[in-house]
Write a structure and sequence with these properties.
CATH class of one domain: Mainly Beta
Function: Cleaves the distal alpha 1,2-linked glucose residue from the Glc(3)Man(9)GlcNAc(2) oligosaccharide precursor.
Shape: globular
Membrane topology: Single-pass type II membrane protein
CATH topology of one domain: Beta-galactosidase, Chain A, domain 5
GO biological process, one term: oligosaccharide metabolic process
Distance between the termini: 37 Å
EC number: 3.2.1.106
Low-confidence stretches: none
Radius of gyration: 28 Å
Strand order of the largest sheet: 2-3-4-5-14-9-8-7
Number of strands: 31
Structural class: alpha+beta
Number of helices: 16
Largest sheet: 8 strands, antiparallel
CATH architecture of one domain: Distorted Sandwich
Main location: endoplasmic reticulum
Length: about 700
């Protein structure tokens, strides 16, 4: 890995893992093919860093790869502030490392072994001037320390820094700088056994400059030469041209008339998703109704994309289906592998934990209250959206391996998420303390704080889950038919759940003029401040708390919230093109008083009671107004289908489709141009990106929208 430090700021600004609060103005992959090549740019104040890599396949362990870091300052005087680059290699419970030093301070190379890589050599080449091969003056420092775990490497390096070192190029002024010195341990870790070994090579130079690192596998024979210098430059140029050609062949944005800046934006969106993919290993912490205390699940591995490198650097079940819609288009084999990894996480009952917090590195980024996974809690089966896209060309042996897992997953939903009436469904695991929330969250649905019945009860009927189960039935029938397995039960369930008459009977709210959830609901609910009595005479009173006040008793009824959930019969294309309800759904979608904005569809109608309302004192609105790209993608996909199908709403669907596609693409590109990032969500009043960033998860679906590839 790589860390860096702009000298003169003290050791506190050491950069390593992607963090929201680092305040970097821009960073992300501009090109990444998911396998052999990538180009990333990082803007940290006046510092510009470019990281590039090329992998050269060969041997039995994945081959060789080389990495080039280019650093320069923008807009600073002379001399430029010193920059330290820290290249490190660490083992984690297995493997060996052997340092090879020059002059006792410069780590020239590391030889080592690991289970997956066999024997290897890492070589740290001397820095050169930018764009050339002339040597660049640098100071070198070296650290050899026990690793206390990958999640603590930043602390180990920061605690080893000392400013007793002097940068002294011949004929220039001398400058002190921070460098790794010696590691004396971290507070509170005395007696803790090391997890592995950390070797670190620090290069301190005055930008601009370039540093290269080569990794050479011991099992490669007849190596054509070191992949460095001119050879690396030529390989990067070849891969760049191949990436751009493949991108155009796959998505056709040039043929559609998109100018180069918008094509580069789309390339960056795809590349940042590919560059954020990770391989995770560890155990989930699971709470089952059958056990009193949480237990660690069996050890497992997961290869997956992630929603956000900075804020959500781990796997999320419902996000991943959306990720794979894009990746399945770019690299079907890669996508099939990810889907198989996710299905391999299934337990004996057919349950998959919705959030994958595997290993200490992942756990270090998660608030404690979110670590525990509850085995009765579902998540939308969006992986089936991607699998449906992959199905026509998926190899039969692959589908044979998948099918028993798909069946178990499908049966688990039907068994554990069934609703109060036949052919109804209910998300389990809503927040158990309703008095704390304006509307108890439904994390299982993926739509977190989207308004549901105000008083959770077994009588609830959740519209979105019913629609997801219709999709699941259709996809399982398709897989069964390809394999020659009995598909009748799945087709029968698909037809029952797609029956428009029954859908209306169970979920059409006449008073709302829309489809809706049903449950024990009061529309007269608010949060108010409650003052608490002092704990004892003479003691100051505790801080007031926001508590829920129910001003009208709940009763069984349709939930008066018009928003994304109301659209699900359209989003998953259960409504027939000639449905008498389709005009009303399209009108809701296009109404500026309700869901329409110049930037995309908002998540909750502006005239809904809980529009942009906080859920608790510390819980700002999340799915109560902001624009989310994944649901806008589903809306565009559905509108495109209705615009192509014979029916009375064909022209209206086509008009709305064109407008919505233009609004969404224009706003995401505008926000990327202004801020340098894709965002988790977008303001429905200004279009401004908000939430976490970079969010090259489902927001990267804008690439498929630009390509009109649904």
């Amino acid at each position: 890995g790589l860390m860096w430090l702009q000298q003169g700021e003290g050791g506190s600004s050491l950069r390593h893992t992607c963090e929201q609060d680092d305040g970097l103005s821009q960073y992300g992959w501009l090109m990444h093919d998911g396998e052999n090549f990538g180009v990333q740019e990082i803007h940290d104040g006046d510092l510009f860093l470019k990281t590039e890599f090329v992998k050269r396949p060969g041997g039995e362990h994945g081959g060789d790869w080389s990495w080039r870091i280019t650093a320069r300052m923008q807009g600073t005087g002379s001399p430029a502030p010193l920059l330290s680059l820290f290249f490190y290699v660490a083992t984690d419970r297995q493997g060996t490392l052997e340092p090879h030093l020059e002059n006792k301070t410069r780590l020239a190379a590391v030889t080592g072994t690991s289970e997956e890589l066999g024997r290897f050599t890492l070589t740290f080449l001397r820095p050169t001037v930018e764009g050339g091969e002339d040597p660049k003056y640098a100071s070198y420092n070296y650290l050899d320390a026990a690793s206390l775990g990958l999640h603590r490497l930043t602390e180990v390096v920061r605690s080893s820094l000392s400013n007793r070192f002097v940068f002294a190029p011949r004929g220039k002024s001398r400058r002190r700088f921070f460098a790794v010195d010696s590691f004396r341990g971290l507070p509170g870790t005395a007696g803790e056994p090391p997890r592995g070994r950390l070797l670190l090579h620090q290069v301190t130079l005055e930008p601009p400059g370039t540093v290269e690192v080569t990794f050479e596998s011991g099992s490669v024979v007849a190596r054509p030469g070191q992949l460095a210098g001119a050879s690396l430059s030529a390989a990067l140029a070849r891969h760049t041209a191949a990436f751009e050609q493949r991108f155009e062949e796959t998505f056709g944005l040039g043929r559609k008339g998109f100018p180069p800046p918008q094509r580069r934006f789309a390339q960056a969106a795809l590349s940042d998703m590919l560059g954020g993919m990770g391989y995770f290993h560890g155990r989930s912490l699971v709470q089952s109704p059958l056990q009193e205390h949480p237990v660690p699940a069996p050890e497992t591995a997961l290869f997956t994309a992630v929603p956000s490198r900075s804020f959500f650097p781990r796997g999320f079940l419902w996000d991943e289906g959306f990720h794979q819609l894009l990746l399945a288009r770019w690299d079907p084999a890669l996508s099939r592998e990810v889907i198989a990894h996710w299905l391999d996480l299934m337990n004996a009952e057919g349950w998959i934990p919705r959030e994958q917090i595997l290993g200490e590195e992942a756990r270090a980024k998660v608030p404690p209250e979110f670590v525990l996974q509850h085995s009765e809690t579902a998540n939308p089966p969006t992986l089936l959206l991607a699998l449906e896209r992959l199905l026509p060309d998926a190899p039969l042996p692959y589908l044979h391996r998948l099918f028993p897992r798909l069946r178990a997953w499908y049966d688990w939903y039907n068994r554990t998420q069934a609703g109060p009436l036949p052919l109804t469904f209910r998300w389990r695991g809503r927040d158990p303390n309703p008095e704390r929330f304006l509307n108890p969250k439904t994390l299982a649905s993926g739509l977190d704080d989207y308004p549901r019945a105000s008083h959770p009860s077994p009588e609830e009927r959740h519209l979105d889950l019913r629609c997801w189960m219709a999709l699941a039935s259709r996809v399982l029938a398709g897989v069964a038919e390809r394999l020659g397995e009995p598909a009748g039960p799945y087709r029968g369930m698909e037809q029952a759940l797609s029956d428009n008459g029954l859908l209306e009977q169970l979920h059409w709210a006449q008073e709302l003029g829309a489809f809706a959830d049903y449950g024990n609901h009061s529309s007269a609910v608010r949060l108010r401040w409650q003052r608490l009595a002092p704990a004892a005479p003479g003691r100051p009173p505790p801080a007031p708390q926001l508590v829920r006040e129910v001003q009208e008793a709940p009763r069984p009824r349709f939930v008066g919230a018009l928003g994304y959930v109301s659209l699900f019969p359209l989003l998953l294309q259960l409504l027939r093109p000639n449905s008498p309800r389709l005009p009303a759904v399209l009108a809701t979608l296009r109404s500026e008083r309700q869901l329409w904005t110049p930037f995309g569809l908002r998540s909750l109608a502006r005239d809904s009671p809980l529009y942009m309302q906080r859920n608790t004192e510390h819980d700002p609105p999340y799915w109560r107004g902001p624009i989310w790209v994944n649901i806008n993608y589903l809306a565009l996909r559905a509108l495109h289908a209705y615009a192509s199908a014979p029916g009375p709403q064909r022209e209206r669907a086509a008009e709305i489709y064109q407008e919505l596609r233009h609004n969404l693409v224009a706003n995401l590109f505008r926000q990327y141009s202004e801020t340098g990032f894709l965002w988790e969500q977008y303001s429905d009043s200004t279009g401004r990106g908000q939430g976490c960033h970079p969010f090259a998860g489902w927001s990267a679906l804008v690439v498929l929208v630009m390509a009109e590839d649904y």
